[in-house]
Specification:
The protein is mainly alpha-helical. The protein folds into 2 domains: 56 residues, Homeodomain-like (Arc Repressor Mutant, subunit A, Orthogonal Bundle); 138 residues, Tetracycline Repressor, domain 2, CATH 1.10.357. Helix content is 76%, strand content 0%. It has 9 helices and no strands. The longest helix has 29 residues. It is elongated.
């Protein structure tokens, strides 16, 4: 009985992954807004109901991409020693985001809007946010930053700063995204004075 249940779970996960991959491929090809659930179902070889079962909305697909991207970001930060400077942490963030989204500005835009919706809904327990907050706290303890706002708010302001820079980049993706994010990180750390 346990094997049958495990086989069914495995089949369900394989179907979910096929639906997800098909949705992302169509998002890349056609854009998020024009994509129809019928198109995803056809590409995945499943019914439209199966698509809705696994991903009730397009935002759910984008949220899955966001989770994957957060995993890349967290792994990059976690590889750094705890005494790594905040500038090094920010360069790691810029690299992770640049590597992930350089060739997909429109898909990044969709994923970024989902991230903003989560932040706006009070969903502040994102693992990437917690990882950055912890690094900001260490930077405060080393006197790299002031504690005027606290580590969590500073991390949120930083994330919003680089998100704004990435959004601007999406409209004109000429320069490498990583360079844009490093410049935005320097702006955050040093202000716009020069």
């Amino acid at each position: 009985m346990q094997q049958r249940h495990t086989a069914r779970d495995r089949q369900r996960e394989e179907t979910r992954q096929r639906v997800f991959s098909s949705a992302v491929e169509i998002f890349r090809r056609d854009g998020v807004e024009p994509t129809r659930f019928e198109d995803i179902a056809q590409m995945a070889g499943v019914s439209r109901g199966t698509v809705y079962f696994h991903f009730p909305t397009k935002d759910d697909v984008l949220a899955e991409l966001l989770t994957e991207a957060h995993g890349d970001l967290i792994r990059g930060i976690d590889l750094l020693p705890l005494d790594a400077s905040l500038s090094t942490v920010m360069s790691t963030v810029a690299k992770a985001i640049g590597d992930r989204w350089q060739s997909e500005p429109l898909l990044f835009l969709g994923v970024g809007l989902v991230a903003l919706k989560r932040l706006g809904s009070g969903n502040l327990d994102e693992p990437a946010r917690k990882t950055l907050s912890n690094r900001f706290q260490l930077a405060i303890e080393r006197n790299e930053l002031t504690d005027n706002l606290g580590a969590e708010i500073l991390a949120d302001v930083y994330l919003l700063t680089i998100f704004a820079a990435a959004l601007a980049w999406c409209g004109r993706p000429g320069a490498p995204l990583e360079q844009v994010l490093i410049a935005a990180s320097h702006l955050f750390l040093n202000g716009a004075k020069g």
